[in-house]
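In this supplementary section we document a worked example of the pipeline. Step one takes a protein sequence of length 221 as its only input; no multiple sequence alignment statistics are reported here. Step two produces a three-dimensional model, which step three serialises into structure tokens for compact storage. The input and output of this example are shown verbatim.
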Amino acid sequence: MEVKIEESWKEKLKNEFSKEYFEQLVEFIKSEYQNYKIYPPAKDIFNAFNLCSFHNTRVVIIGQDPYHGERQAHGLCFSVNEEVTPPPSLVNIFKEIKEDLNIPIPANGNLEHWAQQGVLLLNATLTVRAKQPGSHQNKGWEEFTDAVIKSISDEKQNVVFLLWGSYAQKKGAIIDRSKHLVLESAHPSPFSVHRGFSGNKHFSKTNDFLLSKNLPTINWK
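The serialised model returned by step three reads:
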């Protein structure tokens, strides 16, 4: 099982990779891929990092678990492979972008073009068993992704963090809000979209902030 991570992240996270919890996590993950159907494919575990270097990160969106259905997950939170029907949460994200910025709803749900512009699409847990949501929680991934968030918060400035739902908001408690913009709302899932996600205007607010700091904006198309 060969898994690679982009060089700037490898450097930033090298202390994590040598910690005992991470070594135990690696053993667990290897065993899971050998014995079960696991998503995303092993080559895509660090896709969010490989498409968005530490230096390029300007926006962070925090998800929870990878999708656990066939061919959906490819290492970016909320994103799905092009041939897969976008799940309801992603459809609601696209609806909000249309409402906020008048951008048409796209034909597919692949968000790689966001990542390539500096949007880190970070799930708290980077792997999952097929059809078993939450099956890889509390195995070490959360500690690793907390270290990612802390590294961005401590070593960068003027990053926009989009925290949708209580899980992401708890995970974002370590962000230094004196240096970064943190935007919070309900989750885009059908169960909570009308409790504050719809109309949050997070996409225009993100670009307004980046503009105010003379940073390149994100094309949310």
